[in-house]
Structure prediction request, 76 residues.
Amino acid sequence: MRMSELQNKNVINLVDGKNIGNIIDMSVDEKGVTTGLIVEKKKFFISFFSNNKEIVIKWNQIEKIGEDVILVSVVY
Prediction:
């Protein structure tokens, strides 16, 4: 699967059912192994107390990559 295909999918959190945001990048380790996805948060996830508009979804938090969505389990 290509990165461009992943970027077109919605990222849905199974914990609360909310759409987290859109994939903007991937994180990789020094060996080139993908360790997670970097997601740009939707507006309602951005806190007034945080300047961080991105969230890193670790690879082990990804439950399923489907045709239209990516299901993750993330606790805030």
Observations:
- Residues 36 and 60 are 8 Å apart (CA to CA).
